[in-house]
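The record is kept unedited without comment:

——
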Amino acid sequence: MYSLGYIANYLISSTLYYCDGNPYLMKVFLATYLLIEFVYTLLIKIDVLTSPRTKLDQYISEYKEVNTTSTEEKFAIVTGANSGIGLETSKDLALAGFHVIMACRNKASAEDIISKLELETGLKSFEFMQLDLASFKSIDSFVDQYKKSHSKLHLLVNNAGIALCPYGKTKDGIEMQFGTNHLGHFKLTNGLLDLIKASERARIVVISALAGYSGTFDKSLILDESKYNNVFNYAVSKMCNIMFANELARRLAGTGITVNSLHPGAVNTNIFKNYPEGLAGMMEVLKSLLLINLIEGSLTSIKVALDPKLEGVTGKFFMHEEEAAQPSEALDEKKCKELWDFSEELIKKHST
């Protein structure tokens, strides 16, 4: 029997097949996707047979069964771990046996969250390390601090992100959404890569979004402030997440390290907080009705991070807990390499 996620992905992938590459037909694709996502959200909200919590517990249980003989302590880093699906992901990874480094900006908030997690889980498996993905200095400091206290990294979940914000720049002068969502994680991942390579069967999970399907990697959209559009530039950053994951997967082929990206679903988090003033009340009501909750939104992240059946699976894109088709641009090896080179150039140019 096909899962609800498989059916949803099949419909989305079929529509993408006919629309991909045509800017006019992609509008049809996006409308179709929104309809499918809306129906999917409604159906999983009324699914009384298998609760999201039961599914998460199953992923955790299956992972622990396969790793029951392992005595090595395993370490995971989750960016943006003090709220949203990053928080739920951190809790579930700890329940699976990981020592979880919660990489986030706000120390007071993170330490308060850790106290609550320890009380809820009975585990002392959470550790805060400060990280601001909009600052190269902060990223370098985080990497140095992590390497001083840890010699391996078995799982990296690039989860943090911002969305739909007015034009702004990172502390290093780069457009904020691209700089935070893609470039910060690009620098962080490469800085930790030696420890990831030293860890057996390590995984890198990159949280993107289906909005990336409507984005494109165009340097001018990143460098030219006059071309900035908060919606489209968010889509650009999410496309770059998928392209980065695919290029990194190619570069790590044969190492045993897997790299996959995913769309967590239309999740009710605070990432979409930059809507017009005066609409806050109405938007909160709509979000509660139309969006999935944090547990539901963490399912795909936890599956890609833990599922033993995905051992060796790399360079793929997932949503609704199933593998999904990717837009053609994300599969274009030449463009993915161009993004990689451009990212390195920006970091070199803007580093002080």
About this structure: Residues 23-45 form the longest helix (23 residues). The radius of gyration is 19 Å. Strands lie at 74-79, 98-104, 126-130, 155-158, 203-207, 258-263, 317-319, 322-324. The chain has twelve helices and eight strands.
